[in-house]
TrEMBL record:
InterPro entries: Ion_trans_dom. The keyword Nucleotide-binding does not apply. GO terms for cellular component: membrane. The keyword Signal applies. This is TPC2 protein. It is found in: Membrane. Residues 1-16 form the signal peptide. Its main location: membrane. PANTHER family: TWO PORE CHANNEL 3 (PTHR46726), TWO-PORE CALCIUM CHANNEL 3 (PTHR46726:SF1). Pfam families: Ion_trans. GO terms for molecular function: monoatomic ion channel activity. The chain crosses the membrane at residues 26-44, 65-84, 126-145, 194-219. SUPFAM superfamilies: Voltage-gated potassium channels.
């Protein structure tokens, strides 16, 4: 039963790759039949729990309530989406976000729930580091606006360079991952090579210091909460 439950959970989560918009699109009828099959299996597994558990205990268990609500939401969304599709109205499958609930809340997923609780308990304690990081990002963005915004610089595509504060915040946020490096600094570097020092300082502070600190806090707190739960 455990293997079957995991198989249908995996199948239910995998449907996202085949539903529109899909990586490997399948007809709506195929994906909807597979989803209904998965939901029926989950409902049967829940009914099995109910037969071997006291009613007072079964209905007080929030995991069972979450599974029932997720099944109801998924069926409702599937029915609405199907009806709208028949009438040619485009819509989205908003119930996809509830599918991980099945992975977390079945009795077989005790280890996953334990890890999930550790992550949940860790989140409040990393808030302070995250706020410091955001403050640093916002301050560097303001500095970039003052440094480059009034120099009428342009990107390689001919677009204004660092003149909108929110766009600067986004570009520097991406720079933390180095995904847009060195492209993001080239217009400023072409104007004056000294401006490279600004981007070097930003990467050192935010990528190397803050991200390392962030990872250390997450790891230490996660390990601490996991150790407490394991006793």
């Amino acid at each position: 039963m455990r293997t079957a439950t995991y198989f249908f959970i995996f199948l239910n989560l995998s449907l996202a790759m085949f539903e529109e918009p899909a990586v490997y699109p399948l007809p709506f009828l195929v994906t909807s039949v597979l989803e209904v099959l998965c939901l029926l299996v989950f409902l049967g597994r829940l009914a099995h729990f109910a037969t071997v558990t006291l009613h007072s205990v079964f209905w007080k268990d929030t995991k069972n309530i979450c599974i029932m609500v997720a099944i109801l939401l998924s069926l409702t969304d599937l029915a609405i989406y199907g009806v709208l599709r028949v009438y040619g109205v485009r819509s989205i499958r908003w119930s996809r976000i509830v599918r991980p609930i099945f992975l977390i809340n079945f009795a077989e997923s005790r280890q996953i729930r334990r890890a999930f609780r550790s992550i949940r308990n860790t989140l409040p304690e990393i808030t302070y580091v995250f706020l410091l990081f955001m403050f640093s990002l916002l301050m560097f963005s303001l500095m970039a606006l003052k440094l480059f915004g009034e120099r009428n610089l342009q990107t390689a595509e001919g677009l204004p360079y660092f003149r909108n504060y929110l766009e600067i915040v986004f570009d520097l946020y991406v720079l933390v991952t180095t995904a847009n490096s060195p492209d993001v600094m080239m217009p400023a570097f072409d104007f004056s090579s000294w401006y490279a020092l600004f981007f070097i300082a930003f990467v050192i502070v935010n990528t190397y210091i803050f991200m390392s600190l962030f990872l250390a806090v997450v790891y230490n707190n996660y390990k601490k909460h996991l150790k407490v739960m394991l006793g």
